[in-house]
Inverse folding.
């Protein structure tokens, strides 16, 4: 097991600023979790992807200005911002810059560094071109706002003294610089320790009417803070010429994980070789078909105890994150995209986020479902929680939930990690438990993605927070029950199995989605599901297929555009499908039950209706349930729990600016 595999992932919560707007600090601060990086190659790969891949150089900007490539001020401002993030690509994640009097700089410490710099070529021409080009370009949306942003960015750009292409990933220590007396570093004749920088709150509270400009203003404030000195005074000088009362910019590691990473890199260099990335667990093999197919489970024929659905509750995240909110939090590592383009690409207009921990969402949903069922907690024989976003291992959420609900003992309380197939997996296990316990089973599907996304754009566009709970009870003798057919799948080609990963050390332990592989697994599973339904007979009408008996399809709410396209290719009409993804986003395990709830609320389900509910996703899992949904089982929308004692037992999630400042080492 590698060091990065042994370490847990840090949560990256959103913050509500003083304007009531949602802010994702991880998108602009440039922080990295160095505990997941083992080698210099891993680090430079991350920097190349996040800071370099989309950032223009000064020469690129010059060429675009002189060729008239910029259509408006926004495109130039965005290039300036990405260029300056690239200039600071190693410093932002690793170091604090501290102007320090030369006589006070420690010479022999291994954790104090100096920037080794090269003069900026053709600087005057590039600076003049940007200033002239901006003045000649038309405003894009809001001229005064664009001027304010330009003033911040250009003041940094025009006083940048050094070339940025050849910066070392890890700068030399002071002692190493002194061993190279002609090495150049930035020198200041004086320094004002009260030089104005933006507070963390001021960065969070950046406020512009145009979302794209708000994002740029936040970038500009972060970049301004990277140069907390009188910039016009700076000059590149050999270290041998620095006077005792002059100032240099000392680099100090942001935290102990940065120090430990540098130590690992240097230890590898001392051993005479650059540390290699850890090998894969095992060589890849070709995926082979099972020896025989797995038939769907026809519930009435397979089990003696018929499952009856008694309650279905939902809990939504209490904060709405619109596509405009996503754009106002654009990361410097993103390509340009508008709110309308997100809607067109995903079918999502907004998603719900919650400041509540995952456990609280699950508790609130469970309590509402139990209340609607009319049952008492001691009547339940099992508690199942389907989730793929829990950072709790012991006790499991299901065991924790059992205790919080006052269940002294259950036959089984267990978590199920089946991602977007959480409902079919959970229902399948609930029906099996019914056969043993002959008493109700509580199934909770809950997810909290908002603090596990970081600056990964695809994940930020798609995922949301929420929970749902179902009470699955034994039907009365003679009743046929509400679940007709169940099916679950897992695995596939390794590329599909690893198409959605969390935590992903290659992306700062954020959740990542590889679109083409996800589409491939959805296409494979959906075709298999439709084929099975067509081959299976309707248990209530032997003369027709199960597919013909379906009245409504409520799929996992993954990506409406993708699902509709694949459904058409599988022979399904868009009118047969119900979506609530426009307002909820993708809530993985909770997406199908929340959509079932909303289908009743929207009047799509007005009477007991046979529904086909397919799910597919991370781990190359898949599955479906064919079940009857009666509007009578729908519980009133659950309100956030305020019972004393609950919150204190939960792992706290940072949602205040003070907590986030600590989390990001500011």
């Amino acid at each position: 097991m590698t060091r990065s595999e042994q370490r847990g992932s840090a949560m990256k919560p959103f913050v509500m600023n003083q304007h009531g707007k949602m802010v994702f600090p991880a998108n602009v601060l440039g922080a990295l979790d160095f505990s997941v990086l083992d080698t210099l190659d891993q680090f430079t790969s991350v920097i190349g992807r996040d800071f370099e891949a989309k950032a223009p150089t000064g020469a690129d900007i010059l060429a675009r200005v002189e060729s008239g490539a910029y259509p408006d001020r926004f495109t130039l401002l965005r290039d300036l911002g990405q260029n300056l993030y690239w200039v600071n690509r190693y410093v932002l994640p690793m170091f604090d810059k501290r102007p320090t009097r030369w006589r006070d700089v420690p010479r022999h410490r291994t954790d104090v560094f100096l920037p080794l710099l090269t003069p900026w070529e053709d600087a005057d021409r590039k600076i003049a071109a940007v200033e002239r080009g901006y003045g000649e370009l038309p405003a894009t949306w809001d001229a005064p706002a664009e001027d304010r942003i330009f003033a911040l960015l250009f003041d940094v750009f025009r006083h940048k003294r050094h070339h940025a292409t050849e910066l070392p990933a890890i700068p030399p220590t002071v002692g190493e610089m002194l061993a190279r007396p002609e090495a150049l570093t930035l020198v200041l004749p004086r320094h004002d320790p009260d030089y104005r920088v933006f507070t963390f709150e001021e960065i969070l509270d950046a406020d512009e009417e145009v979302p794209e400009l708000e994002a740029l203003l936040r970038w500009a404030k972060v970049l301004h803070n990277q140069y907390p000195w009188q910039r016009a005074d700076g000059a590149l000088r050999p270290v041998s010429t620095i006077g005792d009362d002059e100032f240099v910019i000392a680099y100090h590691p942001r935290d102990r994980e940065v120090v430990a990473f540098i130590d690992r890199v240097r230890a590898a260099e001392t051993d005479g070789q650059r540390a290699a990335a850890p090998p894969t667990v095992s060589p890849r093999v070709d995926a082979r078909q099972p020896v025989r197919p797995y038939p769907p489970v026809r519930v009435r024929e397979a089990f003696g105890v018929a499952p009856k659905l008694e309650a279905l509750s939902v809990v939504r995240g209490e904060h709405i994150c619109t596509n405009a909110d996503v754009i106002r939090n654009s990361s410097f590592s993103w390509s340009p995209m508008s709110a309308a383009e997100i809607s067109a690409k995903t079918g999502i207009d907004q998603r719900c986020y919650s400041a509540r921990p995952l456990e609280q969402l699950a508790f609130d949903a469970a309590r509402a479902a139990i209340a609607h069922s009319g049952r008492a907690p001691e009547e339940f024989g099992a508690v199942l929680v389907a989730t793929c976003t829990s950072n709790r291992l012991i006790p499991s959420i299901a065991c924790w939930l059992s205790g919080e609900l006052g269940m002294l003992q259950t036959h089984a309380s267990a978590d199920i990690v089946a991602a977007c197939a959480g409902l079919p997996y959970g229902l399948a296990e609930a029906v099996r438990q019914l056969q043993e316990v002959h008493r109700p089973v509580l199934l909770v599907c809950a997810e909290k993605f908002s603090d596990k996304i970081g600056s990964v754009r695809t994940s930020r566009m798609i995922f949301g927070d929420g929970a749902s709970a179902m009470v699955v009870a034994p039907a009365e003798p003679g009743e046929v029950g509400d679940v007709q057919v169940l099916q679950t799948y897992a695995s596939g080609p390794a590329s599909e199995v690893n198409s959605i990963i969390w935590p992903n050390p290659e992306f700062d332990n954020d959740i990542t989605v590889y679109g083409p592989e996800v589409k491939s697994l959805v296409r494979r599973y959906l075709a298999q599901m439709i084929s099975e339904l067509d081959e299976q007979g309707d248990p209530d009408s032997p003369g027709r297929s199960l597919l013909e008996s379906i009245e409504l399809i409520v799929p996992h709410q993954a990506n409406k555009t993708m699902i509709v396209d694949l459904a058409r290719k599988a022979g399904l009409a868009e009118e047969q499908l119900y979506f609530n993804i426009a307002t909820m986003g993708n809530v993985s395990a909770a997406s199908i039950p929340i959509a079932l709830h909303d289908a009743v609320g929207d009047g799509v389900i007005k009477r007991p209706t046979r529904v086909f509910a397919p799910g597919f996703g991370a781990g190359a899992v898949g599955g479906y349930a064919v079940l009857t949904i009666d509007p009578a089982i729908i519980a009133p929308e659950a309100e956030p729990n305020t019972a004393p004692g609950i919150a204190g037992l939960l792992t706290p999630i940072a949602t205040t600016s003070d907590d986030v400042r600590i989390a990001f080492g500011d």
